[in-house]
Design brief:
By secondary structure, the chain is of the alpha/beta class. Helix content is 43%, strand content 13%. The protein has a single domain, classed as 3-Layer(aba) Sandwich (Rossmann fold), CATH 3.40.50.970. The N and C termini lie far apart (39 Å).
């Protein structure tokens, strides 16, 4: 929900780094399609690789969380020097946000007033460590004070509030306002890994947070506002299923990638 709110406010050439495990949202960023996401996930050579497409602002991620922050900081510096008008959105979880590269990136962004928005997606848990044990503040957006950033806290499970908050910060940064920080409060609905018994979570917490699940909440809010009807929901479910099936059918026809190591070698040689 949180990265989708940003993707729907970005342009094709803006740089964007979603936090760990939310890369599937990238079909909502201009320039990508569901087929691109599915092909990459299945290791097939699709039209575009959402994780590595510099022309679409995607500069890759990594298994070592937080390390990509300085790479996207570089994209912000390039946009500033070239005066492209592009901006950068870098999202990290509450656990990764505590790593040194993030602090270094925010310090430089503040000193140089770069066009980048840092987002802490507060999942409440970094693996099995609760946010109460890893932070001495409740409002994680207050971390922006140390870097001189404008900062906001938002309910990350409220799609409308999240969209408007993303829009506000993106418009400010694109207008030359410099970097900022958003703390989006949510909760990780699934275990950190399949088989995780979650002994670190208090009894009853899972049930309470499922009541705040964002998709159902968003649907109810739109229906309460008179924007969405039951008929609309039925129609959209059919349309979305058809769109996804068409994407899977397209990817199913693609050959399996068998030249992974050869491609890696070519890239390594090109960078020498």
């Amino acid at each position: 929900m949180i990265p989708i709110a940003f993707c729907n406010n970005l342009t094709k050439t803006d740089s964007f780094c979603p936090n760990f495990r939310t890369g599937f949202c990238l079909f909502t960023k201009p320039g990508f399609t569901p087929a691109d996401i599915i092909a990459t996930s299945l290791g097939k050579p699709g039209k575009k690789n959402p994780w590595s497409a510099p022309e679409y602002g995607m500069l890759g991620g990594g298994g070592t969380l937080g390390e990509a922050s300085v790479r996207y900081l570089g994209a912000a510096a390039a946009a500033s020097m070239k005066k492209t008008g592009d901006i950068v959105v870098y999202i990290q979880g509450d656990g990764a946000a505590n790593r040194a590269p993030n602090h270094e990136a925010m310090a430089v962004a503040g000193a140089w007033q770069l066009p980048i928005i840092f987002v802490i997606q507060n999942n409440r848990y970094g693996m099995g460590t609760s946010v109460e044990k890893s932070y001495n503040i409740e409002d994680l957006s207050l971390r922006g004070v140390g870097y001189g950033f404008p900062h906001d806290r938002v309910d990350g499970n409220d799609m409308i509030a999240m969209y408007l908050m993303a829009k506000k910060h993106i418009e400010r940064t694109r207008a030359g306002g410099g970097p900022s920080l958003i703390a989006a409060d949510t909760w990780r609905l699934r275990p950190h890994f399949e088989g995780d018994a979650q002994p670190y979570r208090p009894k009853g917490e899972v049930d309470e947070w499922w009541k705040k699940e964002p998709l159902g909440r968003y649907q109810k809010e739109l229906m309460d506002l008179g924007i969405l009807t039951e008929e609309d929901v039925d129609r959209l479910e059919v349309e979305v299923k058809a769109e996804l099936q068409a994407a899977f059918d397209e990817v199913d026809k693609l050959p399996a990638r068998t030249d992974v190591y050869e491609q890696m070698e070519k890239l390594a040689i090109a960078e020498l």
